[in-house]
Amino acid sequence: MQTPGKQKLRDVLTVIYEGRIRRYLDPERIPKHIGVIIDGNRRWARSAGNPVSHGHEAGASKITEFLHWCDDLGVKVVTVWMLSTDNLTRPADELEPLLRIIEQAVDELTAIGRWRIHPVGALDLLPSATAETLKRAETATHDVGGMLVNVAVGYGGRRELADAVRSLLLEEAAKGSSIEELAEHIDVEHIARHLYTKGQPDPDLVIRTSGEQRLGGFLLWQSALSEFYFCEALWPDFRHVDFLRAVRSYAQRERRFGT
């Protein structure tokens, strides 16, 4: 067991190390948009013999910390994947507490009044209380001039693409366009204008915690040219120094944008 003195020394050294990383970060190479897949809440709780809901609560608290870190570095957009469409099929005794935790977390982010909240996901798949919480957060923060925070709840990459194509078809049909005319002129920009994140820059950096090295359907379209960083830490254990290492890794890469 680590003594208080050793822990204090470790904390001091960590702060010094963080300061060193921060000092050498080029402001011109800070990602404008960071996406984060917050993975590992359940494993974190179970490893300590606690209920899964305890992990989700710890994970929700970490989101606020993470957003402050991003804001402090001057990141303009953050997308946080809080709940996938696949998660909506989980047993009710896990899903319902999780939805309440998400609602509370979104209310707390709204109350901070520092960031503009934008829900991304299939709100029609969510319970009405959760959907209303997300819509209320967007309305309440609409005029906030700070960092844009995409809250991905009920989100799935394939569902987003299907919704985008559906929206595009309905828009063109309302104009009287035929399928043949649409097929002749459609391009990537047409589809991009109907994504949940329309008008936003694509993510420069996508971070996933818990050691899993896959996207799982996160921002499938938008992340085509993103840089990825996979961290072993479970989300509730994700530290400021882990975040700075991720940004440093991004800043040191030569981005080829698919070439």
Automatic annotation (TrEMBL):
Keyword field contains Magnesium = yes
GO CC term, one of those recorded = plasma membrane
InterPro entries found in the cross-reference section: UPP_synth-like, UPP_synth-like_sf
Positions the record marks as coiled coil are none
The record's cofactor note says: Binds 2 magnesium ions per subunit.
* Record's keyword terms, sorted: Magnesium, Metal-binding, Transferase
Detail which positions bind Mg(2+). 39, 227
Question: What cofactors does this protein use?
Answer: Mg(2+)
What Gene3D superfamilies does UniProt report for this protein, alphabetically?
Decaprenyl diphosphate synthase-like
Described by its record, this protein's role is as follows: Catalyzes the condensation of isopentenyl diphosphate (IPP) with allylic pyrophosphates generating different type of terpenoids.
Assembly and partners? Homodimer.
HAMAP family for this protein:
ISPT
Q: Which family does it belong to?
A: Belongs to the UPP synthase family. Z-FPP synthase subfamily.
Provide the protein name. Isoprenyl transferase
